[in-house]
Design brief:
12% of the residues lie in helices and 37% in strands. It is built from two helices and four strands; from the N terminus they run βαββαβ. The protein starts with a strand and ends with a strand.
Length: 76
């Protein structure tokens, strides 16, 4: 049976670091970067990519639509 693995891609220049995505991530995948984008904001990134299930909660709550979620089937 195939297992689903998730991944997020954050548009670092669009993300304003509001941190709304962090509490809705059930698996604690998202953190704020220590780096800043051109506007001076710390942006979201996948700190624990192996834990991502692709639930899309982060993308749904992102006010700037800076997060895209992908799901990939992997062999078990």
């Amino acid at each position: 049976m195939a297992k689903v693995k998730g991944a997020i891609v954050v548009d670092t220049e669009t993300c304003k670091g509001c941190e709304v995505c962090m509490p809705v991530c059930q698996d604690n995948v998202i953190s704020m970067s220590k780096e800043v984008n051109r506007k001076g904001y710390h942006y979201a990134y996948m700190e624990n990519p192996e834990a991502c299930t692709g639930c899309t909660n982060c993308a749904i709550v992102c006010p700037d639509r800076a997060i895209s979620v992908y799901r990939v089937k992997v062999s078990a």
